[in-house]
Amino acid sequence: PGHGNGPMPGDGTGSAAPERVLFPPTFSVSEIKNKQRRHFMFLRWKQQQRKEKLALKKKRRKEREALGDKAPPKAVPKTIENQRVYDETTVDPNDEEVAFDEATDEFAPYFNRQTVPKILITTSDRPRGRTVRFCEQLATVIPNSHVYYRRGLALKRIIPQCIARDFTDLIVINEDRKIPNGLVLSHLPDGPTAHFRMSSVRLRKEIKRKGKEPTEHVPEVILNNFTTRLGHSIGRMFAALFPHDPQFIGRQVATFHNQRDYIFFRFHRYIFKSEKKVGIQELGPRFTLKLRSLQKGTFDSKFGEYEWIHKRREMDTSRRKFHL
């Protein structure tokens, strides 16, 4: 791509002008009609941008080193996350109303150690291979969980059977075209029920540098960024899936990390390299959840009373507004 009229800028044939003259402030790559030349110039422009950014970084670092202790504090970069629109339902840990709700909600018996979690993991009707493997791996992450594959049995018939057998939670993994794409989490016997869209599912064998199979120790649970009243409820739902007293000797940790209303799940093991250094090893599986609705009571798609439904057109008016 150098067959245009006249020499290519900066290819050694023209005058040795400084590189920044190549792209004046009004320069637009999209105005170049020749596709090959446009692509070439775009790559050159990106390269120049990188060089300028690197040079500015070096200059700033030298200035900071020269100033030493007198250097001004580093500027905090602006992100969608830290420019979040204020939400009036953000939970204050010392709020008496929140404390009262927590003491009387459906999860209170679990947090008071009166009930022990017992989970039933089931699937959509007649699941395929990938969903089956995912359910098996999820059962090794959540202690005291049992996998049951549905064959034509309606959820409304499964729930009374679960309650009769003392199950505290029901997890349903839905699939589309053999890929897991949805998760329903229902707390028994009285709800609530959360519906999630599931994406980015990675099974153990698809994770690079994964650790050995998880042991049967009860993992720690980390819940990050569940700050609003809705987020608080969802966080408590996830916490109630795991026994209350983790076995730290197993060095396993299950993380639910909320960022921009996407809940990222990861399962790791700590590796202590020395007294001061610690590494982490991912065990898998991993997946991402997006809350679609929260329903009072157990699963009832027809007559259920919804506490919260994600309505994209009404709720997603700003990229900086989050609900969890």
From TrEMBL:
Residues 1-13 have a biased composition (Gly residues). GO terms for cellular component: nucleolus; preribosome, large subunit precursor. Residues 1-21, 49-76 are annotated as: Disordered. GO terms for molecular function: rRNA primary transcript binding. Residues 63-72 have a biased composition (Basic and acidic residues). It is found in: Nucleus, Nucleolus. Keywords: Ribosome biogenesis, rRNA processing. Gene3D superfamilies: Probable brix-domain ribosomal biogenesis protein. Pfam families: Brix. One of its GO terms (biological process) is maturation of 5.8S rRNA. Its main location: nucleus. InterPro entries: Brix, IMP4/RPF1. Residues 117-300 form the Brix domain. May be required for ribosome biogenesis. This is Ribosome production factor 1. The lineage of its organism: Eukaryota, Metazoa, Chordata, Craniata, Vertebrata. The gene is Rpf1.
